[in-house]
Amino acid sequence: MKCNILKKRLRKSNAILETVFNKDQRNFMIYNTQKGTSWSADTITKALKLYVACGQKGYEEVRRQNLPYPSIRTLQHRIQGLKFKPGIFEDIFHLLKIKIQMFNSEEKHAVLLIDEINQT
Predict the structure, then answer these.
(1) Which superkingdom does the taxonomy of this entry point to (predicted)?
(2) pLDDT given at position 80
(3) 7, 8, 52, 79 - which has most CB atoms within 10 Å?
(4) Whole-angstrom Cα distance, residue 72 to residue 35?
């Protein structure tokens, strides 16, 4: 009977973890290492959103609390090869919205600076 109770608790705990963390994050918590595997695109996306919302110091604090997120260098490495097509990159507006929401409610002003890139 105790075994069944423990199995139920374990299933419930796993279900809760699955709603919060991706599989690679759960594996990181279990094995305490990411060696030999890559962070998933979903985890990288979550980490980038967190980094944009919290800034470098906040993101580093999250990682110091042993939450399973990639290093800042890993994030930089993953985004350095991104290719952007000409036009408006709609996804960036979602990240900007998150950043603006972090401002004081009385001071919700932001500037969007757009630079043209000449491809030769």
Answers:
(1) Eukaryota
(2) 83
(3) 52
(4) 16
Tokens of 112: 């969007």
The Cα–Cα gap between 94 and 66 comes to 27
- The values of phi and psi at residue 97, to 5°, are -60, -40
Q: How many CB atoms lie within 10 A of CB 51?
A: 20
pLDDT score recorded for residue 116: 67
Instruction: Compute the distance between CA of residue 21 and CA of residue 27 in angstroms, rounded to an integer.
Output: 10
Distances (CA, A) of 94 to 7, 19, 99, 101, 118: 40, 22, 9, 11, 26
Q: Is 0.85 surpassed by the pTM of this model?
A: no
pLDDT along the chain (120 residues), means of 10: 92 90 90 80 90 90 93 89 70 71 64 65
Q: Cα dist. 38→34, 66, 69, 80, 97 in Å?
A: 7, 18, 12, 16, 29
Write down the number of H helices and E strands in the chain: 5, 0
